[in-house]
Each structure stands twice: as C-alpha cells, then as structure tokens.
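Margin note from the TA: students keep mixing up input and output lines. Inputs are the sequences; the output is the structure of the whole complex. Example:
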Amino acid sequence: MDSTLAEWLRARLEEPSPGPAYRRLAHLLQQAILSGQLASGAKLPSSRALGADLDIGRNTVTRVYEQLHAEGYVLAETGSGTYVADTSPARMPQAAQRAERRPLRDHLRLSPRGRRTIELAGVGKRQWGAFMPGVPDVTEFPLKAWMRLQNRVWRSVRPELMTYAQGGGYRPLRRAVADYLRLARAANCQPDQVIVTTGIHQSLDLAMRMLCDVGDEVWIEEPCYWGIRNLLLSSGLKTVPIPVDGEGMAPTAKHLARPPRLIICTPSHQYPLGMVMSLARRRMLLEYARQHDCWIVEDDYDSEFRYGIRPLASLQGLDQHGQVIYVSSFSKLLFPAMRVGYMVVPAALADLFAQGIAELYREGHTLLQAILAEFIDEGYLGTHIRRMRSLYAERREVLLAAVRARYGERFPVLGGESGLHLALALPHLGDDLPVALKAQELGILTRALSGYYNTARAVQRGLLLGYASVPSERIGPAFDTLAQAIDAFDPRARRR
Amino acid sequence: MDSTLAEWLRARLEEPSPGPAYRRLAHLLQQAILSGQLASGAKLPSSRALGADLDIGRNTVTRVYEQLHAEGYVLAETGSGTYVADTSPARMPQAAQRAERRPLRDHLRLSPRGRRTIELAGVGKRQWGAFMPGVPDVTEFPLKAWMRLQNRVWRSVRPELMTYAQGGGYRPLRRAVADYLRLARAANCQPDQVIVTTGIHQSLDLAMRMLCDVGDEVWIEEPCYWGIRNLLLSSGLKTVPIPVDGEGMAPTAKHLARPPRLIICTPSHQYPLGMVMSLARRRMLLEYARQHDCWIVEDDYDSEFRYGIRPLASLQGLDQHGQVIYVSSFSKLLFPAMRVGYMVVPAALADLFAQGIAELYREGHTLLQAILAEFIDEGYLGTHIRRMRSLYAERREVLLAAVRARYGERFPVLGGESGLHLALALPHLGDDLPVALKAQELGILTRALSGYYNTARAVQRGLLLGYASVPSERIGPAFDTLAQAIDAFDPRARRR
C-alpha cells in the first residue's frame, strides 16, 4: 500500500496545478479517503518515508498529517502511526438508511413558493437604457459633492458606525428624513417614527412580518407594481386586487364587506397608471381602516416629481388615528443602487418596528446613512430634486411631442403629469407583450402594461415608457425605434 | 362666512410660525375643511377679496386655491367661484358603516408573529464594548486603503453601478469571493454560484423562501445563534432543535426518522459552544441529506479565526451532490455595519437564486461591492485576516489568563480555539441571566449562555465573552469588573 500510495500521489503531484505542495497533498489524501481508495483503518506511511518518496520536506508531510488529523480524516496514535479514520456514513443510525437513492430534480427541488417566485419574476437583465421605467438619470447625481461628504464621514468614523446597528437607522438621518417629509410631503412625524430600510421591498416585508400573519388578506391595487406580488405571496399572504378608477383605489361594496389586514396603495401617483387618489377616496380609506382595524401602507415612490403643481400632500399627513405606514426611498430621487429607503410608522409602533428590523434583518450601512444625512442637511437633496424636476419635465415634453408627431391623438397617454414614466395606451391591441419583446429586440426597454395586472379581467394594454434617464436628444430616435415595434403589431398605428 | 373666515385665518396667520404664507394658508384651509369648520358646498371668497382681507398678494391666494383644487379639497366652477368639495367619508358604501368605533390597542395590534418577534428579541441597545460577543475590532480596519479604493471606484463609476441591480451581485465580487473560498475554505464553487447578500439573515431568508414552504420543518442546533429563531418563525417555518455533542449536531434516531426540509448548522465552530463538527458527522449529515432530499445550510460565520491550526475545510467542499448552501459574511472579517454577506449555492440553483434575490429584495449597494472586490483583489482582505488572527490570538490568551488567575480551573472554558469569543461555563449556577444583567449594570456586555437554547432541557449555564474587540490592556480590568457580577451569584466563585 505504501509504495502504491506514494506512486499514485507522485503522479498527481507532478501534474501542473496551482497552489503549494502542502495544499495539494492534503487535498489528494482527503480525496483518497473520501472515495475509499484509502480505506478506514489503513495506516499511512510515516511522514519521513512519504516525504522521501515524494521528494517533499518531512515537515510539509507532518503539517499535512496534522491538518488531516484536525479535520478528522486520520487518527494519530502516539508511537504507533497515523491511521485512516472511520468516517463513512455506514455508521449512520438505522432510520436514516431506509430511503432509496433518488435522482435530484434540480429546478423542481425549489419549494412551491420558490417556484412561484421564479414564475412571477419580473426583474429584467438590463436595467439601464431608453425607456426603462422607474429609473432616474443617475448620471446627473452630484458625485463630487457626495465624495467630499463621504471622505469627511469616513475620516472621522467612530466604532459605533462600524459595528452592528441598534435598529431603526442612524439617528441624524432619521431626523433629516422627518424634517424633509414634514415640509415636502406634509407628513406628520417625529424622527423616532422614521425607520430606515434598504428600500420599498424591505419596508413592505417588515410591515407584513410585524402586522400580518400567514393567510391574512392584503388589498393591492389592480394594476400595481409587479414586485410586491411576489413579496406578498412569498410571505404567505393572500392578495386581493382592488380595481382603480379615476380617483384611485376603488373597492366595491363586496370588497368593503370583507376588511383586509393591510391595504397597499399609491395615492400620489397610482403605479403604473398615474392617477392621483382623490381627497374623498383618501378620507374614505382612512375612515374604513379606522372602523375595521386595517393598516394602510402608502407607497409614495416618486411623488417629488410633479410637473405643473407642487407635490400633493401625503395620505399619512391626513391620518388622525395612526393607521398609515408611509414607505418611500431615495432610489428615484438619487440612485437605485444606493438602497436606502424609509418608512414612517405610527408613533405607537415606532419602538416596536425599530426592534423588529434589528431582529429580522440586522441592518447596518451606517456610514452610508451618515453621508446621506449630511447630504440632506447641506441642501444637496433639495437642489438635486429641483434640478431633476425641470430636467425630467423637459424630457417628458420631448417624449410627448414624439408620440404626438408620430401618432397624433390615436393613443391615449396616461399618468404623464408626474413621476419618471408615462403609459402609452394601445387599446386596440390584443396583447401588448409581443410589442415589448419586439422593442427589446430592437434595443428599447419598456414594460407591457398588461404585466401589471393580477387578474385577466379589464386589463389595459399599452407600454410603460420611462423618460427620466434618457437624454432629450436620444428620446426622438429611441421612440422612432420603438414605433417600429408598435407598428408591427398595432393595426391603428399604421393608419397614417 | 367670508368675513368670519378671513378673521379666523388672519388670527392664525399672525401667530409666529415657520414657513411661507403660501404654505401656512393652504394648511389652515385644509384643516378647516377636514374638521368641518368649512362645510361641504361652502363658497370660498374670491382670491382678490381674501388677498385684500389677509393682506396677502392675490396670486398667492390663487396658487393656494389651485393647490387645494389639485388635492381635491375644493371644486372650481368657471365664472362661478370656488366651493368646498364633499369629501366626507359619509359617502362610503353601506357595508363599511356597520362596524362600531373601537379603540386602538397599540401594542396588541401587532400580528401574533409580530408580537413573537418582539418577545424573542435579542438585539441589545449597545453593540460596542467589552465583552460584546461576535464583534471584531473595527478600529483596526484599514480605513486609508479602503478610502483610496472607494475614491477610485466612485471617480470612474458607470450608470450600471448606480441603477437597479440584476441579481446575484456585482460580478467581480462574486469572482473574488469564489477565488477566496476555494483557497481559504476548500470550497467547491464557481463565481456563478456565489450570491451576494446583505448578511447571514438575508442569506437564510432567501434560502427559506426559495427552498421551504410555510409549515416546513427546519433542524437547528441546540443551542444556536438566537437571531435565526426569530427569522425562521417569522417565515412560518417550524424549528426542531437538535442537541449538539462533542462532534457537533447530533440527531437521534427519533430525529432521523422524520427528515426536515432544511438543516442549519455551524460545522466549523459550533455557535455558541465552539466545537468542530467531526468528519464522520459531516459525512453522515451529507449522506442523510442525499437520501432524504434535505438541504443543508452551512453557517460559516467566523471560521477564518483559528488559533494553532489552519481553518478546517468547509462542509460545502465535501458535498458531492449539490445539497449544501454555504453562508457567510464580511461582518466579522471586516466590520459588521458593512452588511455584505454571501452564499454559495449548488450549481443547479445558481441562476434561480440570482433571480429570486432580485425579485424579493431588489438588491444594490453595487458601488460598495465594487470597492470590496478591489479590496480583496489587491490583497487587503488576506493581510487584514492575518493581522487580526494574531491580534485576536493575543487577546484570547490575555482573557484566558485573566480567567485562570481569578478562578483557576473552577470554570470550564468552551470553544476558545477559534472565533471571536469563548464561553465561560458556570455549571453551578441556577440561572445565568442575572449575572449578565448585573454585568451590564457594571458596564460589561456579555450574553447568558442559556439564552441560546430553545428548550428548557439540558441547558448549559455560563457567559459568552467576546474578546476580539477589546484591547489587550483593557481585558484584565474589564474581566475584574465582570467577576464582581459572577461573584455576586455563583457560590463557587467566591470560594478562594
């Protein structure tokens, strides 16, 4: 055995391969033991003998043996030698032995909810380019100012900013966000009520975990942001799609008869259709939630960008009974990969949510939060929003002009008064997905409007076009390319 | 009405208050409408008249009216005037009216799982100081090198690093982690198999959502890291605590007769007791998982820090059938608030997990990932680990010496061969929690060992002491302070 082993090892050690001899020898011996080539109880050659056979220093072999011993591959008996340990799973208790060998069924071995997550997947491979909806112009971000603040924060860092976080977020950022929301969104909040998250998904996830149980019903808008369906279903909640009308989410008497645990809505700018929830509807929802102990989640994802009039006040600011959870993020104000969002929770829940987020996610990114707090305090956020608002307003005009120039009034434009996108309705189309796929082939990113619906009834067809990240001079040519895809499928498009 | 309204408004506008007249007037009118002081249908004075009465420019009043109109508070009829809109919830459909007014029950209005999350909460308010377990010495982090790389990455940033991420993490970081794990942990992985997360919590959460369903059983070690209990329960999974012995997780025949969906274990360094899982046990678990289609999650949280011998190879590297999910993070190698972790999934699941993480969390922090990739590629990670290993080894010696100097061999020390902490067993103590609380009063952070157990049976008592973040010269004095708390409760401690 000794000489066979040495020969086998030598042949393999001579093969060109990266890494030091020590690591390679250890690896080869492990493989030989695991595969059974070196059987349980076999005695290994002495380190001196093996070293000589392999032309390797004795100390190297000794270190390898020590390592194998520490890992349990071999037993060392003082004065007697080194033996292969018995580690074969044959020692496993009886109950474990019964099952047959079964082939793995890769994809199928995801759980049902894992499979559904993949089936409902909506995130595209490309996240930058005309007319990707929901993406701001990240090239306009004030990099230099940010880097200056970043260096300042890092230079004076304290250990408290680098260790585990306490829950709720970095205090000065919570204060800065509360100040901002009171002014810009007429929100009614103290810094304690602000919980810093990594974005809307984490905010919703925390709300669901703290306020809902498996099986609870949640109202969502129909249509709605595709991302929350997966999140809700994956958490074991039941979604109840509520149609929207010109005043926003419009539950019918049948819906109202069965109060949900949570109501998720986008009052400032319905996603994706763009209407604003009327004051009457807001008051109705608040009163309904009060009577039935529901929670309302207000998703206020891009309300800062309104063209013509100031942003509307938030639903949270109207809430007198502490039932609204306000969620938003800096993804569309600054840049998406920053992953800083926040929620404003009723005062009675503030400490509980701060504790809950620490437990469930162990948050951090505290230095990033510190830089962002200074960025807001020094006025860069306000300046950037104002700059972007006029830039996006211009791009919106250019896109609207391109639509009108090509199609006149044939296709209604929805929700263009605010936000980063508009919806081009294509009501005569049987299916809008082929148009989006064709556009993608031509290099233009859009989303088919039908993809935002949860049920097959009353689906609007069209395309969501994000204009915010597209330079004005690129919009016309990009729309002409997109129009080829529309013309290929829509019978009305070709009627000039 | 007109003059009363003007008077009421004038009185309030005269009160000293921040913000421009425009915003204050809008706010006052909104309040008057919401409270019913201005009833539905009431006609507002003309902007000219109200402006004159309040000594405010007419244009300001016009803007306020436009804003109120946009928000739905008033109706504007051309040529006729401005009227308060009917937005009272009395218009709500019948079904919603039935419920009685019920008082809110703040805390109680958390869902049952939300309440349990708070009840099981383990995150402390202080996260820095002697002897906080699991915290590395963040003050030793190579700040200057990091800032240099950070500025380099930010200066050459591309839009793709700032927009939404695609799923799985920044490619060069996935490659750097795969290279690192193959060398340092004998892992068997390609870059595609590495999924970058925000830490162990997110890694576990993703594994649970992709591989388990509500009601599935999960084996956890008894005792185990307190943080995962909450996470598992909050996801609707059932935890089955499996006792550990000297070789690690030790399922009995009864356990083996009922295969779980997932097995979570800490083979390199059992948390919190510190034993290493034997090779025989590793092979048994792998074989059992293969036979019963279970998944194994290997939590490898601090295996880099072993004193005396190289880190042991990972369980993942032994896996021949693609059933091990390896999870770890940079929290203990670099600093916790960085929030970069990773998982290595079997090749068959790589794309599915990359898609799943994008769907469920919309990850990002891409610039941070880019900086970290360069940090690893330029060798800073390796250098830092080596420096910290010798620093922590020294601190561990100092703490062991302090224990021995004070208590001789009276209290066993567990798991001190590796990691960032050791467990000081206090076997004669009825309850270890009062000791930890007393220590906290004295300014020393520890965790009671009993807090890591899920059932009341066979609980070890003692304290978890983290030494990694405590400068050597602070360890002796801090331990003397801690000893006051031990002496106050443990009858054996005082027997000198």
